[in-house]
Amino acid sequence: MPTKDDPRMLATLRSFNRAMGAQLGMPQEVDEDVTEMYLALTGAAANEIVRPAAPFSALFAGWLYGSGRADSLEEAAAMVGEALRTVEVERPA
Fold this sequence. Notes:
Blueprint: H1 7-24, H2 32-48, H3 53-66, H4 73-86
């Protein structure tokens, strides 16, 4: 399995981001800083909560930004990151 520093994986991710952005009509490309920020956010959710929580952390950040509760993607990611550190999750035995 490739690591996040694997050049082929990162090249594929950049290509995916460009293609999806174009397909969805986004006005600008997803830059490297935003990519790294969301990889860190989803990685934290996967490691601190449970692996399938990763995409939901990005969903929550998108909701915060889209609803106007966060003024930027960076602020939305920070808000979700803080929530990940403080949320109480039931963990069945």
